[in-house]
Structure formats: C-alpha cells, structure tokens
C-alpha cells in the first residue's frame, strides 16, 4: 500500500488530508515541522509527500525541506500546498523539483487528481528506469568453448567481491554482457546496472551525465552515479573519456563522493565500477591520453574477453541462441542452421565478433529464402570478409566442401580469373601461373572449362597462339 507523508503545521488540515487519503486506501504519516518531516523521510522514504510551504515553529520552511529531500531522494514526488495568492512561490517550488501544487482552500477532488497524477508519473518513471536497466536478455551469456569456460570462471570469482573489474577485448565480443553477468550474480543484483558509453556522450556533457546538476530553475537532476547508488556503473570504452572527466572520476573513486555540476554539497554514493576498453590502455597512457592513476584504480581485476575467432566452437550455440532470441522477441521464423551453414559461419572472419554474428543471424531470418533451415546462401553476403591483417580468408562456397572438391572449385575460379586477366591469352596465363601451356590446357579440360568458349575478348596474340 502506498505511504504518503503529510507535512503541515495546521493540525486540522493534516488530519483532514490524512482522513481523505485513508478513505482512498493510502496509509499516511503526519509531520508538523521540518524536524519531524526529515525524521520521517530518513526512517523510510514515503511514496509521496504533501508539503505545506509555510510552516510555523519549524527550523526549515517548505522550500528548504523540498530541496533537502530532493537531494537525498530525488524520486519522491512532492506536492506543495500553498496559501491563496502565493502562486510565485509554488512555481519556484516546482522549479526545485516539486511535482505540482494545490492552492488553499482546496477540495477533495482537486487534491485527489493531483495525487493520482503524481503517483502515476512516479510509477512510470520507476518502471522506465527499471526496464532500461533490467534488460535480462542482455545478461545471458552463451558459450561452451574452453576459452568461454575460462572467462566464465574468472567472472564467477569476481561476482561476490566488490573489486573493480576492467574488461578488455575487441568490439562486440561481449564485454557489456560480461559486466551484466557480474552484476546479476552479485549482491547488488536488485540495485541498478547503469551503462555509460564515453564514446556516445559529448565531452562537454559528460560531467553532467555522470554527476548530475543543480540549477536555480530546474533544481536537482541526478546523474548516472547517483541513480546507480547501491548498484553497478559500467564505464564503456574508458579510453574515450575526456581528460577532464578522467580526473573527476579518479577523484570520485578516491573520495567516494562528488559534487553535482553547479552544486556545492557533496553527494555520497555506494557503487561498484566495472569498466571496459577495446584499446591498449598502456599505449594510451604512454601517449599521454589516459591517466595512469585512473588505470590503476579501474584495473584492480583485469579480465580478457576473447574475440569470436578465438572461440569458434561457440558459433553454433550462439547462432542458435540468436535464432531463439529473434523468434521470441521479434516473432521472426524459427529456423535452424543446416550443417553447411554452421560450417560456413565457423569458417568466416568475424571482425565484429558476437555482435556481427547476431546481425548475420537476424538478416538470415529476415531476408532468407524460407524453408526449415538456414542455408549457406542465406548468409553468403558476409562470407568473404577481409580482416585487413593479410590473414587468409576462405570463401563461403569452399568451406562446405571436402578438400578435393574445394580444391577443384578453387583452381577453376583461380584459373578463370587469371585467363580473364590476361585477355584470354593462354600462353601468358600459363607463364604467370607457372605451368606448361599444354598442362594448363589439360587442367582446364579436367576442370570442365572449355577454353575456347571463354567469354573474354581475344587479342591477336591469343588467336595466334591458340
Ligand atoms: N556470450 C554471449 N552470449 C550471448 N550473447 C552475447 C554474448 N556475447 C555477446 N553477446 C551479444 O553480442 C552483442 C554485443 O555484445 P556486447 O555489447 O556485450 O559487446 P561489447 O564487447 O561490450 O561491445 P563494444 O566494445 O562494441 O561495446 C550483444 O547483442 C550481446 O547480447
């Protein structure tokens, strides 16, 4: 049942409001001055607070109480009661974070409309932030390869502790999933998990986003650190953090407290920090772009999340997991992978790691040709990916064939490409590929290539040689 705190110095009004609310099914607590009000909030934050602006025999007036409460409990909706003709003060209260105001004298209907709306707005805000942070599908970590088991056992060891963890690994390999896994198994699981992407936030907004802000007209707006109180903050790609923010975060980690932008009061929070990077932070430190002291603080437990290429055994289970996922969440058809398609996925290059695999599966389900199984043709578009490191990349068609057939297919494609390159001139092609002319002719014949029918422009030299 929702509990409402009523703060008014006039006993009649307190009790009248209390009776009305109890009739509507709320429980109530009453306070006649700031000391009683603060004691009640500190004992147990109420679901809503009704606050008179003018309080006799009180250390703080309503506005001061409002500001103090909003500092420690920004989520409590506060409805102000103002005297007739005091609209400016009421408006000032709203700017400082009050939800709405009612003017004395008010009737029951007015009171109930405002309270119902305030409760509803606060419920929606809570639900939204819970939805944002409790994306359980993202906490699910799938895998069975040896390197995945090593990763999982390292994560399992750190979940119970409070130690700061630095996750290192290439883009899309599952660092955030690993961070959510730590959170979901820790004793902070019921508190928020909030993710901050240094790359996605403009440097000039970073401090506001992290620490929140206080302004005369809008009052207090809590930042990520404050919203995550009791839980886990995930700092994604710390190497992208502007230098100024690095120093400020370092100070928060040392002092365990911070000041909101534009504010003076210290805010104390209890947080666990998990961070991640795709870059070599030692090199960033040497280049003067990342602070050594911050690295030392964040890197208490370093954990490497391997790229997908290092755990190809996981590809079939991950792909099946994504098929399930898209089926359940987006109603895409549930199609299993054919053994050939699995083989192809396992042979592909994965510069974008698990995220790329997820995209490939999604595309196959959306654009695939139907039928019960996902076939290599459904994933062909991504089969040949250059990794930029000069590593050999095997073409999609080859990965599904036995060696002899794959070799023939390769030879055929290779020789046709060379013949085209040399304008159909078999002598020059033979010389380039390192074969006798007659041997090349024989080869083309066994491969079923009719060299006379090659669709290339023939130069006079060719005609002469043929
Ligand atoms: N082991 C896993 N099991 C299931 N899904 C995974 C796994 N690893 C990664 N994913 C999925 O792959 C996608 C990318 O993962 P995530 O965002 O955690 O990667 P990241 O390393 O944090 O990426 P970036 O460095 O780009 O921020 C997400 O959709 C995530 O759900």
From TrEMBL:
Mention any Pfam family matching this sequence: Response_reg
| Ranges where the Response regulatory domain occurs | 3-119
Q: Which UniProt keywords apply?
A: Activator, ATP-binding, Nucleotide-binding, Phosphoprotein, Transcription, Transcription regulation, Two-component regulatory system
Q: Which InterPro entries match?
A: AAA+_ATPase (IPR003593), AAA_lid_NorR (IPR058031), CheY-like_superfamily (IPR011006), Homeodomain-like_sf (IPR009057), HTH_Fis (IPR002197), P-loop_NTPase (IPR027417), Sig_transdc_resp-reg_receiver (IPR001789), Sigma_54_int (IPR002078)
Q: What processes in GO biological process is this protein linked to?
A: phosphorelay signal transduction system; regulation of DNA-templated transcription
Q: Which PROSITE patterns match?
A: RESPONSE_REGULATORY (PS50110), SIGMA54_INTERACT_3 (PS00688), SIGMA54_INTERACT_4 (PS50045)
MF terms in GO: ATP binding; sequence-specific DNA binding
Q: Which CDD domains match?
A: AAA, REC_NtrX-like
Record-annotated Sigma-54 factor interaction domain positions: 141-366
Query: Where on the chain is 4-aspartylphosphate found, per UniProt?
Result: 52
- Give the record's subunit note: Interacts with sigma-54.
Task of the protein: Required for activation of most nif operons, which are directly involved in nitrogen fixation.
What protein is this chain from? Nif-specific regulatory protein
Q: Which organism is it from?
A: Roseicitreum antarcticum
The beginning of the lineage is: Bacteria, Pseudomonadati, Pseudomonadota, Alphaproteobacteria, Rhodobacterales
């Amino acid at each position: 049942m929702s509990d409402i705190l009523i703060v008014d110095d006039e006993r009649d009004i307190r009790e009248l409001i209390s009776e009305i609310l109890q009739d509507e099914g709320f429980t109530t607590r009453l306070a006649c001055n700031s000391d009683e009000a603060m004691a009640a909030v500190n004992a147990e934050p109420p679901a809503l607070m009704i606050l008179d602006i003018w309080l006799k025999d009180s250390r703080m007036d309503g506005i001061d109480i409002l500001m103090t409460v909003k500092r420690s409990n920004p989520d409590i909706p506060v409805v102000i009661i103002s005297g007739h003709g005091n609209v400016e003060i009421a408006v000032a209260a709203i700017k400082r974070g009050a939800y709405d105001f009612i003017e004395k004298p008010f009737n029951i209907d007015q009171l109930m409309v405002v309270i119902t709306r305030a409760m509803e707005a606060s419920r929606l805000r809570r639900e939204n932030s819970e939805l944002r942070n409790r994306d359980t599908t993202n906490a699910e970590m799938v895998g069975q390869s040896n390197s995945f088991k090593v990763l999982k056992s390292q994560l399992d060891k750190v979940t119970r502790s409070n130690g700061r963890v630095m996750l290192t690994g290439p883009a899309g390999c599952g660092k955030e999933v690993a961070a959510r896994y730590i959170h979901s198994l820790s004793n902070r699981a019921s508190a928020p998990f909030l993710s901050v992407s240094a790359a996605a936030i403009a440097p000039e907004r970073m401090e506001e986003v992290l620490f929140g802000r206080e302004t005369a007209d809008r009052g207090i707006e809590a930042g990520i650190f404050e919203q995550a109180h009791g839980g886990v903050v995930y700092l994604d790609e710390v190497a992208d953090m502007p230098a100024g923010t690095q120093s400020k975060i370092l100070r928060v980690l040392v002092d365990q407290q911070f000041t909101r932008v534009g504010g003076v009061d210290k805010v104390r929070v209890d947080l666990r920090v998990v961070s991640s990077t795709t870059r070599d932070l030692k090199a960033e430190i040497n280049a003067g772009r990342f602070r050594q002291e911050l690295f030392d603080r964040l890197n208490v437990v370093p954990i490497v999340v391997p790229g997908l290429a290092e755990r190809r055994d996981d590809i079939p289970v991950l792909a099946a997991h994504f098929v399930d996922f898209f089926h359940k969440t987006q109603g895409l058809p549930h199609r299993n992978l054919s053994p050939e398609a699995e083989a192809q996925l396992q042979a592909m290059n994965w510069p974008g790691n698990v995220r790329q695999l997820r995209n490939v599966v999604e595309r196959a389900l959306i654009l695939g040709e139907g039928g019960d199984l996902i076939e290599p043709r459904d994933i062909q578009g991504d089969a040949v990916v250059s990794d930029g490191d000069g590593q050999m990349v095997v073409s999609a068609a080859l990965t599904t064939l036995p060696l002899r057939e794959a070799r023939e297919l390769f030879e055929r494609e290779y020789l046709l490409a060379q013949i085209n390159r040399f304008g159909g001139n078999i002598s020059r092609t033979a010389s380039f590929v390192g074969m006798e002319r007659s041997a090349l002719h024989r080869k083309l014949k066994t491969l079923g290539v009719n060299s006379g029918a090659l669709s290339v422009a023939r130069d006079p030299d060719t005609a002469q040689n043929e």
